[in-house]
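User: I'm putting together a teaching handout on how multi-component assemblies are represented. Below are the sequence lines for each component of a complex, exactly as they appear in our records. Could you produce the 3D structure of the whole assembly as C-alpha cells, so the students can see both representations side by side? Please keep the chain order the same as the input.
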Amino acid sequence: MIAALVLACSILFFLQFFVPYCRSLIAASSSHVLSPEVQDVTGLTSPASGEDFHRVVQLLRLCPDRPEDRGEIRAIGVYFGMLNTLKSMTHSIAPAVRSWTERECGRCTYFAAVALDRRVAFSRDLLAQQIEA
Amino acid sequence: MPGSASYAILFLGTLLEALVVVSALKRKVFRKYFVLNLYMVLCLVVSWGRHYTLAREGFGSLAYRYFYFYTDALLTIVLYFGLISLYVSVFEEMKVARYLRLGAVVLLAGTSWFTYAVVSQSSQKILTYFVFELSQNLYFVGLVLTYVLWAAVLKMRQTPALLVQLVLSLGIYFSFFAACYALSNLHPTLYSRVSIFFPVVGCLLPLSWAYAFWRVPNDVRLTPARLAVAVPR
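Assistant: Of course. Below is the structure of the complete assembly, with chains in the same order as your input.
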C-alpha cells in the first residue's frame, strides 16, 4: 500500500518537475534571434508552428552532433509528444487548452530551430579552425 | 558480466561527471555550488572504484555488490547535502543557513532511525539491508524536499535560471529513482528489470547539470511562476 502511494507520488512529482524543466529550457532559448540562414532553411513563420517541429528536428539530425545539447533536445521531444497527446485528448472538449498546446508546440519548434542555429554555428567554427590549421 | 553497452553507459556517465566539474570551473561557479561539485567528484572516484572492483572481482562477486551498495548510500547522503546547499542558495538572503543545516542533520538522523527500526525487525544482515534501505528512503525524502524547494522557488519573483535548472533536474532524478524503488517494492521480481535503467538515468543528472553550467549564463534570471503550467480553462 505504502509502495503504491510512493509510486503514485513519484510519478506525479516527476511530471511536476519535468514540465517546468522543459519550459525553462524553452524560456532560456526564446530570447535567441535566429540567423537569416536558419530562418531561410526552416522557413519558420512568426510565431513558429508546432507542425514544423519534426521537419526542424530532421534538419537538426543532419548537422554534426553535440553531446551537451542531445539530452535537452530529447527532453523537448518528449514534452512535444506529451503536448500532442494532450491536444488530441482535449480536441473537442476544451478549445482553450487546444490553443494553449498549439502555442507550446510552436515554442518547442522555436527551441529546435535555436539548437539548429547553434549546431550550424558550431560546425562553421570547426570548419574555419580546420582551414586555418 | 555486463555487456559492452553497460560499459559504454558507465564510461559516458563518468565523462559527463567530469564535464560538470570542468563546466563549473570554467563558469567560476565551482565554489558557489561546492557540494554539488563535490558529489560529481565523488561520483568520478566511485565510478573508477566500481570499474576496478568489477574488473578484479567480477560482476556477480560479493565484493562488487557490497562496494556498489555502500558507495551508493554514501553518494545519496552527499547528494542529500547537495540539495540542502541548494536550499541555502535559495534562502541566502534570509540568513537561515545554520538552521537549514541543523534541520537537514536532524532529518537525516530521523530517516536513519526509521530505516533501522524497519530493518531490525525483518532481517539478519542488518547493516547490509540498512545501507540499501537508507538509500531508498533518502531518495524519497530528497524528492519531497526538492518538491518543497521548488514550491518555494515558484513564489519568488526572479530566480537565476541556473539554480532553477539545477533544482528541476534534481527533482526529475529523485522522482525517477523513487518511482523505480517503489515499483520494485510492489513487485520484487521487477527489480532486476528496473535496475537496467539506473545507469541510463544516472547519466541524465550530470548531463543536465553539465548543460546548465555550460550553457546557462550566470546573470540570466527567470520568473519561476511562468514555468509552472497554467492551462486555460
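A couple of points students might notice: Chain A has a mean pLDDT of 85. Helices of chain A lie at 2-30, 36-42, 53-62, 67-89, 95-132.
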